[in-house]
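[Discussion] Sanity-checking designs against the backbone

I'm trying to build intuition for which residues belong where. Below is a structure token string of 551 positions. I'd appreciate it if someone posts a full sequence so I can compare it with mine line by line.
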């Protein structure tokens, strides 16, 4: 017949009570007499009590007070002249004594886990005089333990991690259960551990509570978390023992046991030839079932005809390979590129090399798409010259542009009038010949910088720009001018031959070797013999001077 927890406790109480009663003769106080000694002509016997320890069963469930033991003094002749009293811990409130017989009873249910023993003092008094007939004696009532506390996991529930692919027997975590029962008495506090849920993946050491792996090659990518239920049972796991449970959540942590693999052996992307340098062409990714550092990649272009045109880098957040342009694309020069790209793990674990190789290859083909580009001039800058004496309609020079696309659309030319506000020049829309549209004056503007536009006939929105610098050549079309208006004064006592004024002339023209001026007096002034003019032969530039002398 199986006993439940309550029935089992009652059985233990009855057994303990029997043991207590059977040992009462040893528990009763014994006295020892010392040799008699004499004082004042009288003989007096000295008495003393020696008390043994009392035991009382905890968790007594009966309705009557629980008998603990008996106090007795050999002075007591049984005639009612002696009374017994208790003092100390629990006296009167928990423990009572029959003052006539010395019988001690417990009036309340006791719990060893709350208090394991009580220290009390006993005394026998003369009932008439109320004086002690024996010296006061101290004794202990110890609470006898029963198995009334189940093991408890004070730190549960637990969480732990263990690397995937760990060998059998790898320690995961240690669980610990405590039992409030008396560890020094019987097996009430002796705990053993077992696993109720989590097999066959994990096991637990019965005595230590250390959880270990029980299967090899557990794969995080297949299942990354396990819920274990661990039981702790007292009474060394025997039937009738009390038990407690806790849960342990075990997470498999990642190791680099999965090599990167491209989902496809080849990729193809189309990009317009007008895509700017540094633009992203494509993003590719090698799949890796690992996580964190174990999934970190590096990509590189190992072969192909686009090594100098494209480059590949890694996005640290997504582990994608980013292909970007390094040089401008030109559909007319090359219509496609082929790249051989490798992806490799950055952190390879030597323990799992047999699962590799930890790199993979794929082919990326990039198709360059034609874009309707604007016309291109044969030169970035045209330099032309024309004389300022040129007549209207004089041909200055020719510019040329062409459509770089395969269609080679015809081109029409025009002048950006924002760069030729006075409309000095014209251009033939078909031939690109630039001519003069009005008279030119070098002294007004020596160089004209104009912008020529070239538009596709089929798509006028496609406009190319060319730049023309037209230098105006000088002719001698400006007469010399005096540098200023002269007004000269002379003293009446001036000496003959004395210089009284220097005069200068300027010329707006710009001959390469400088101006040659000649100075002379007008016919009217030449008849005045008081003054003469000395010509300096124009050796001063740009102001060429002569001197007026007084004679």
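Best answer:
Here's mine. Compare freely.
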């Amino acid at each position: 017949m199986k006993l439940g927890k309550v029935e089992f406790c009652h059985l233990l109480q009855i057994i303990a009570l029997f043991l207590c009663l059977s040992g009462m003769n040893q528990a009763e106080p014994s006295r020892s007499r010392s040799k008699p000694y004499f004082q004042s002509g009288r003989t007096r016997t000295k008495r003393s009590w020696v008390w043994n320890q009392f035991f009382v069963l905890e968790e007594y469930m009966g309705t009557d007070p629980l008998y603990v033991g008996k106090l007795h003094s050999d002075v007591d002749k049984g005639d009612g002249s002696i009374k017994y009293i208790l003092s100390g811990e629990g006296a009167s409130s928990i423990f009572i004594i029959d003052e006539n017989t010395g019988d001690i009873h417990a009036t309340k249910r006791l719990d060893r886990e709350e208090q394991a023993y009580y220290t009390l003092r006993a005394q026998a008094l003369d009932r008439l005089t109320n004086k002690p007939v024996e010296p006061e004696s101290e004794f202990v009532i110890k609470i006898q333990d029963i198995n009334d506390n189940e093991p408890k996991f004070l730190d549960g529930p637990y969480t732990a991690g263990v690397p995937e692919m760990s060998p059998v027997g790898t320690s995961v975590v240690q669980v610990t259960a405590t039992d409030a029962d008396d560890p020094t008495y019987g097996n009430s506090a002796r705990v053993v551990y077992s696993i109720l849920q989590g097999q066959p993946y994990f096991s637990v050491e019965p005595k230590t509570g250390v959880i270990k792996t029980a299967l090899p090659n557990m794969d995080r990518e297949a299942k990354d978390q396990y819920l274990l239920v661990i039981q702790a049972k007292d009474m060394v796991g025997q039937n009738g023992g009390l038990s407690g449970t806790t849960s342990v959540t075990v997470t498999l942590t990642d190791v680099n046991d999965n090599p990167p693999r491209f989902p496809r052996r080849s990729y193809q992307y189309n990009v317009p030839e007008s895509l700017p340098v540094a633009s992203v062409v494509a993003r590719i990714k090698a799949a890796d079932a690992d996580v964190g550092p174990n999934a970190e990649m590096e990509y590189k272009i190992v072969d192909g005809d686009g090594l100098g045109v494209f480059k590949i880098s890694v996005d640290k957040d997504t582990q994608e390979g980013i292909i970007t342009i390094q040089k401008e694309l030109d559909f007319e020069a090359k219509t496609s590129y082929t790249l051989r790209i490798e992806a490799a793990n950055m952190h390879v674990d030597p323990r799992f090399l047999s699962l590799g190789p930890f790199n993979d290859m794929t082919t990326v083909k990039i198709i360059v798409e034609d874009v309707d580009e604007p016309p291109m001039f044969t030169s970035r800058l045209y330099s032309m010259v024309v004389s300022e004496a040129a007549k209207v309609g004089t041909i200055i020079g020719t510019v040329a542009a062409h459509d770089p696309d395969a269609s080679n659309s015809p081109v029409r030319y025009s002048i950006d009038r924002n760069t030729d506000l006075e409309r000095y020049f014209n251009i033939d829309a078909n031939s690109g010949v630039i001519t003069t549209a009005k008279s030119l004056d070098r002294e007004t503007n020596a160089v004209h910088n104009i912008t020529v536009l070239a538009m596709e006939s089929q798509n006028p929105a496609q406009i190319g720009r060319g730049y023309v610098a037209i230098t105006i050549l000088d002719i001698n079309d400006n007469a010399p001018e005096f540098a200023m208006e002269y007004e000269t004064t002379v003293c009446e006592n001036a000496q003959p031959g004395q210089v009284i004024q220097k005069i200068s002339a300027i010329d707006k023209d710009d001959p390469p070797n400088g101006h040659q001026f000649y100075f002379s007096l007008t016919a009217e002034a030449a008849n005045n013999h008081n003054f003469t003019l000395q010509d300096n032969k124009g050796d001063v530039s740009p102001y060429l001077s002569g001197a007026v002398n007084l004679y």
